[in-house]
Amino acid sequence: RQEVYRELRKKPSLTRDGVPVDLLMNAGLAVDLPQLTESGAAGIGLFRTELQFMVASTFPRAEAQERLYRDVLDAARGKPVTFRTIDIGGDKVLPYFKGAIQEENPALGWRAIRLTLDRPGLLRTQIRALLKACGGRELKLMLPMVTELSEIAQAREIIDREVRHLSRFAHHLPTSLKLGAMLEVPSLLFQLDELMKAVDFVSVGSNDLFQFVMAVDRGNTQLADRFDNLSTPFLRVLKTIADAGLRNDTPVTLCGELAGKPISAMALIGLGFRSISMSPASIGPVKAMLTELPLQELEGFFNDNLMAPSQKLPMRALLQAFADDR
Ligand code: PEP
Ligand code: MG
């Protein structure tokens, strides 16, 4: 199998009927970087910057942040990299963060963009480090756990201020800056067109989005197999997002665990996703599926089944049968 996947790296990333799909990888530490070449990923779709904070014993200094980001971009050698601003809080606690609070429901609590907008010094330092590390290159930046569009506007103000500051001191700035939002909170589903217009790209965090759409704690093993992330309602949610991206000409990608299983990656591509990001070990198996996928047939399958008022079998079973038949 490993041999087969190695051979596949040389093949273009296309469905059987010739539609290109970007297979990107998730990463978070310098040790992940060699995987970029080994996996054959087209880039890094999610760089979890909080990992550097989680393995440290105090807040990483600005210089250390900048150094890591520069190493990531150097290792990527021109392949696209999307950095996510620190996503701490919730299940990701920093023992040295003195401002942390006790929360009844940390997943619904003071985390990610909520926390960093309240502690703008953290965000400012990180953004400055990213801007400096990306001098002369493209910076793709995304915000985790966005709930309201005003959070994007606030983050943009902080970014603009840092850009102005650095240009005043004649720093080498990124050639372009693309700002994206992660779609993890269902409130955004009811303002999709506004969201698509407010950002340069959207990345679905399916781990958190599934948790909040189904009201099921993503870490609770008792419930881990209870609800299916290939069930009709969740697939309809994903289709709604992909359609909104297309309608507004805003690139949409997905970077949760869902992208890493061939059967669910197949479903995502059938629903309209043309870019998905997964753990590096999944790239080979997903690419093997991709090159065999008759996409037009799968789109026909979804047209017939996804909105049908009554299905004889669960969607997962129907999708599995579709895959088995081919
Ligand atoms: C997600 O929620 O799907 C995601 C990619 O972010 P994380 O798993 O880091 O919360
Ligand atoms: Mg998340």
Automatic annotation (TrEMBL):
Keywords: Cytoplasm, Kinase, Magnesium, Metal-binding, Phosphotransferase system, Sugar transport, Transferase, Transport. The keyword Transit peptide does not apply. One of its GO terms (molecular function) is phosphoenolpyruvate-protein phosphotransferase activity. It is found in: Cytoplasm. Signal peptide: none annotated. Belongs to the PEP-utilizing enzyme family. This is phosphoenolpyruvate--protein phosphotransferase. It comes from Mesorhizobium montanum. The lineage of its organism: Bacteria, Pseudomonadati, Pseudomonadota, Alphaproteobacteria, Hyphomicrobiales. The chain holds residues 427 to 752 of 756 of the full protein.
